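Good morning,

Attaching, inline, the backbone tokens for the sequence recovery test we're adding to the shared suite. The designed sequence is right after.
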């Protein structure tokens, strides 16, 4: 195996793991110890990548492609979700109660907080009008249907677990919003 020497650290040519002087001493004195360590690292990495490949059909691929799953309204009732905004422009918290969802948007640039209440329910199809008879009822579906002052909007639930929620706004764009459960 060829190596490159840079100061106190010796690097493998393949560039995966840096070997410090301690590893060089182990390599010189006891090659079996170093080989055993290297095999353990390879096994751990293999298990990690296999785990990632297995979980990608539930998390990674579901962000790119919709999972044809239906979700129960009980997974949202009584929960609080915080939107993950990578730009840092605003902090959005959504509180799901029995029949209302309260969205709290805080903008750090202008020190302003906006609170909006939405009626909501889950549906298997995107409705043309909001069905108030389904609000607060035991519903299932792939779409989160919202109503605020007579305006109806819907979000496709891409993924919903105990800690993560991925929503895609239907109609306008293909942006997927990630929310992290805080309660």
């Amino acid at each position: 195996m060829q190596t490159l020497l840079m100061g106190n650290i010796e690097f493998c040519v393949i560039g995966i793991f840096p070997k410090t002087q301690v590893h060089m001493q182990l390599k010189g004195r006891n090659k079996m110890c170093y080989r055993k360590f290297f095999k353990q690292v390879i096994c751990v990495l293999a298990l990690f990548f296999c785990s990632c490949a297995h979980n990608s059909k539930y998390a990674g691929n579901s962000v790119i492609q919709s999972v044809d799953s239906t979700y129960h309204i009980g997974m949202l009732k009584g929960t609080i979700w915080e939107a993950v905004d990578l730009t840092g422009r605003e902090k959005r918290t959504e509180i799901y109660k029995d029949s209302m969802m309260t969205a709290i948007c805080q903008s750090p640039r202008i020190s302003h907080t906006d609170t909006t209440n939405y009626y909501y329910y889950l549906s298997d199809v995107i409705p043309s009008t909001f069905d108030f008879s389904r609000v607060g009822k035991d519903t299932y579906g792939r779409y989160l249907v919202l109503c605020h002052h007579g305006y109806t909007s819907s979000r496709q639930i891409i993924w919903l677990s105990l800690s993560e929620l991925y929503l895609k706004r239907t109609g306008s764009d293909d942006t997927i919003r990630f929310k992290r459960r805080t309660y």
